[in-house]
Automatic annotation (TrEMBL), chains A, B:
Location(s) in or outside the cell: Peroxisome
Organism of this sequence: Allokutzneria albata (Kibdelosporangium albatum)
Domain Acyl-CoA oxidase C-terminal: 492-613
Signal peptide: none
Gene3D superfamilies xrefs: Acyl-CoA dehydrogenase/oxidase, N-terminal domain, Butyryl-CoA Dehydrogenase, subunit A, domain 2, Butyryl-CoA Dehydrogenase, subunit A, domain 3
Any one Gene Ontology molecular-function term assigned to this protein's record: fatty acid binding
Main subcellular location of this protein, as a coarse class: other
Protein's recorded name: acyl-CoA oxidase
Pfam families: ACOX, ACOX_C_alpha1, Acyl-CoA_dh_M, Acyl-CoA_dh_N
Length: 615, 615
């Protein structure tokens, strides 16, 4: 059964996963207690090992030295999450963000010139988008790139301290070049944010003239990644430095773009970042799986307090301990299946040359939603695992402190979770592409108030939700769908009603409702992915086990949101109580299976060094 | 108003708090990025500064060089929580645990010989209770202390690896002596756990013969504290090494004790540890206040996204951001007032020579409950603060990573929170002293099933809870009291009904209910403390502000538990919705006051070095 479960979890990219597991066996862990500079050294050396092993090219075109497997590049990243997370993030910066930006925003000659060097690590680079003053609101970056037709160059400039590029991976030490996002100006006209390739260091590693580089210094975790700050003092780069797939500047300074409208262009460019978000969700899940493997193994072997017969009780026999770990384990299964669907969709939408805007929009929304939900799940679950391992969980040797410290920023980078969920909600509210990415929320409330007329949707009658078996999957799906629709309906009504007032205030006063709409939407999608996975499970006994895991996931989700179901007449008080009983019962039933459920994640045991997890 | 708030928060020990704030100004922070060994050095040097400044003696008797202010010793510890938390914990180990054990479990001659040396730091020591195999279940420690009447010595021995003393502060480097908890054996009879003073190192720092010392190595945080492991191979100590207030061994090996029954004796000794738990709650609150000060100041100055008029919005203007921080701020006020009451009660019960068992029992229960609730609050709030500060919150320079890493073990040490809440619940269930500390839960279910007849309690009729103003304090108090009583009633009924089965299973199957009973009990006590604080507030405008803060605390608590109130007919669905609206409204109303509310905590600004918190 172990193999069936593993195969199901490994999914479409099972071969690549197995190859990466073997590759992880060749990598070296950073020495315990290593300091920051040596950790950075170590990570760079391991990065070279990965490049030599062919790990770096998965997502790049075959003719530039890659495998041409766009979805696979996410899987390859995600699998690194079983090892040193600094290495995973550094790989993501180099090949996913820097290389990915050149690939997605650049064109033929730029690909020819740079991609192979990037894949083979002859050129290390940065993805310089975030500024000290603008993190979430990247549409309003202040760095400028002004075209000078006299010399045929762009002048890249940091006009004030808030425009300094900040938290940039690869910047403090290793990067030689940066993809710099800046407001493009030609002939006095602004064309919005564009990306340019700007060399930042000489071959000897010293900063190039006009470039100031600072080190972000010690972070909570991920200290093997050299995050830094970049400022530009009228730095000149040739016209060819502009990554010009979505915006081109002719020699005379004439601007042209295949995408009309600065706003739409901006979000088209940003859309190419969707892979980064999906990758972070995957990496967060890998770290969560590792933490759960450690905590469950500890819970099975650690004993405390005796039964009446004198035998001491494994702590995982305690209901409170099961409740800490098993619903989180079940939800990790759910999110893994949702992640697999998302990667597949990414692969199909961006891997080919499809230009289906509707699918892209949905993909972006799902990516934003799953990134937020998966990274919060990681933060909470790893915290729970730490506490569930008591004092042992606080020791570095048991790995949970590093997992916690390294993953803590996942809720922030590649899009702050709160901002991402608003993006999801706005997608739900409008379905209108031009408003999709309108991160600043303004105009949205007004738009909703004046234009959205609330489509009449075929609804499940509430009475159909009231009875029946809590374990009935059809009922569960209906319940999740109904919740999502009802929350969204309520939000639309609320925004319309308040639509007369100040648009900012209207939207802001409903922000809790907005986040909730997004959350319930993601919950439904995740559940559907779990159901689909059970349906494709080839083995009856495994499917039965997964049915229980899915029930635990669903019922724990309902229990956490009981107030809503009770308050909206979806559950009677008696039925609400039975949800809690069912969660308790499922915990007891799945407790003997917990070991095999974490085993199936396939975290390579050489990367689980925690003494408390050994047998 | 600032001063009125500060004075109210500073409470009975305001002078000592002010003195300690000044003292913190003299202390030095560990250098950024300091490694473990140098951090330990640094902390030891700062500990000596504290001792010279008279900080160490607060809780010790005047005739041994102290101030005789038992409650004050908790305050002195807690105030160190604004500085380096490693120093706070090291001070707690040396003076609170090690010194406190000698003081509480020892007698005259032992006090004469050791207390002054401990206060003045001429003798550094450990509190060696926890073993690798027994952390929560300390009644079943395996270390033995066997009396040898031929030599008049005790033989202290570690019979197996699980009996190794673990996580012991001061053990890895600085401690010269340890209070070792061991099963006392004389003439072949076991008398339960007792404490002995065992020298562990020579003057030159090398381990004494028969003593093996290991280093716990790197931890998630608190790396300035030298936690280690101690094993004893038939180490002999004189008869006078037994701390003999609660158990005496005569020269011929005859055992005597003023407390009858090994069980009661054990819990009497353990009762002396109550100060440690209260101290941890206080330290957790100090760290929380520091984190909130940083996050609120950042939220006031950091701007992101623009209003329609083009001005960028301070992130604390966003409802979602307010919801992250302001209810947590309100609850920090509530817990601070509850902590003040608890310290006062400790001071009166243990500071004098009172021997009121009922008061002691209640104090122990309240200490256990508040420790659990305050430390979980700290863990959650500091996490929220980190995320609320985005990428900046992940940088070491902004202090939140260290606060998070240092406080993470607070939910574990001085009693695992889950175990502590069970202790509270058992106190509620029985009120019978002998069963109070019965941590192993066995017999409890049987006892409840067979003996507890469920006192008839005058209850608030449910209909009295249904209407009225959500901000009515009397209603709020009734609601909390009613919830506590109803949950406890339900638990008793559930245990009685199931009482026929296996006692372990019965209790275990109700564990979620048990924890809930404890939690609702603590919530009621905390609210009462808040109400009392408002009543003693001398200034009408300040009282009005505190009224709002209290409303936010209460309504956020109700909102988090809406499922219960709805499911038990305490709130109608419409009223439940109005709770959420009221929380939103209070967030908006208190947002302009957030700055002064954190200012009033009085965290010394020289200990807030985070660039994002500067003005």
């Amino acid at each position: 059964m172990d193999n069936v479960l593993r195969t199901l979890l490994d999914g479409r990219w099972a071969d690549l996963r197995e190859r990466t597991r073997k590759r992880l066996g060749v990598l070296e862990a950073p020495p315990p207690g290593v300091d920051r500079e040596r950790h950075r050294d170590h990570v760079l050396r391991q990065l070279r090992v990965l490049a030599s092993a062919g790990h770096s090219g998965v997502g790049f075109p075959v003719r530039h030295g890659g495998d041409g497997d766009f979805g696979g590049s996410v899987v390859a990243f995600e699998m690194l999450g079983f090892g040193d997370l600094s290495l995973m993030v550094k790989a993501g910066v180099q090949w996913g963000l820097f290389g990915g930006a050149v690939q997605a925003l650049g064109t033929g000659q730029q690909h020819e010139r740079y991609l192979r060097e990037i894949v083979e690590l002859d050129l290390l680079g940065c993805f310089a988008m975030t500024e000290s003053g603008h993190g979430s609101d990247v549409q309003h970056l202040n760095t400028t790139a002004t075209y000078d037709p006299d010399t045929g160059e762009f002048v890249v400039h940091t006009p004030d301290p808030s425009a300094r590029k900040d938290y940039i991976g690869n910047a403090a030490r290793d990067g030689r070049m940066a993809v710099v996002f800046a407001q493009l100006v030609t002939s006095g006209d602004r064309h919005g944010v564009h990306a340019l390739l700007v060399p930042i260091r000489e071959q000897d590693g010293s900063p190039r003239p006009g470039v100031t580089i600072e080190d972000c210094g010690e972070k909570a975790g991920l200290n093997g990644v050299d995050n830094g700050r970049l400022s530009f003092d009228h730095v000149r780069v040739p016209r060819e430095a502009l990554l010009d797939r979505y915006g081109h500047v002719a020699e005379d300074g004439t601007y042209s773009s295949p995408v009309e409208g600065a706003n739409k262009r901006f979000f088209t460019m940003l859309g190419t970042l969707v892979r980064g978000r999906i990758s972070v969700a995957g990496g967060a899940l890998s770290a969560t799986k590792k933490a759960l493997t450690i905590a469950i193994r500890h819970g099975e072997s650690r004993r405390q307090f005796a039964r009446p017969d004198g035998t001491e009780v494994p702590i995982l026999d305690y209901l409170a301990h099961q409740r800490r770990l098993l619903p989180a384990l079940a939800t990790t299964y759910a999110l893994t299946f949702a992640q697999e669907e998302l990667v597949t969709e990414l692969h199909e939408v961006f891997g080919g040359d499809s230009d289906n805007d509707q699918r892209k929009r949905e993909l972006e929304s799902h990516a934003a939603g799953l990134k937020a939900v998966a990274t919060w799940h990681a933060t909470r679950t790893i915290q729970e695992c730490r506490e569930a391992c008591g004092g042992a969980g606080y020791l570095a040797e048991n790995e949970l402190p590093q997992l916690k410290a390294d993953t803590d920023v996942f809720t922030t980078f590649e899009g702050d979770n709160t901002v991402l969920l608003q993006l999801v909600a706005k997608g739900l509210l409008t379905g209108y592409r031009d408003h999709l990415g309108d991160l600043d929320a303004l105009g949205m409330a007004r738009f909703v108030a004046t234009q959205l007329v609330g489509a009449v949707i075929e609804r499940t009658p509430v009475r159909a939700l009231l009875g029946g078996d809590l374990h009935d999957r059809t009922w569960q799906l209906k319940l999740f769908t109904d919740r999502e629709e009802h929350v969204l309906d309520g939000l639309v009504r609320r925004l319309r009603k308040a639509g007369e007032g100040d648009a900012f205030e209207v939207f802001n006063n409903a922000q809790d409702h907005v986040l909730r709409a997004a959350r319930t939407h993601v919950d439904r999608i995740v559940l559907e992915a779990f159901v689909a996975a059970i349906e494709r499970c080839p083995d009856a006994a495994t499917a039965e086990l997964l049915d229980q895991v899915c029930d635990l996931h669903v019922l724990a989700n309902i229990e956490a949101d009981l107030a809503w179901f009770l308050g909206h007449g979806r559950l009677t008080p008696a039925r609400a109580k039975s949800v809690t009983s069912a969660v308790n019962r499922l915990c007891a039933e799945l407790r003997p299976r917990a070991g095999e459920l974490v085993e199936a994640f396939g975290v390579p045991m050489e990367w689980i060094t925690a003494p408390i997890a050994q047998r």
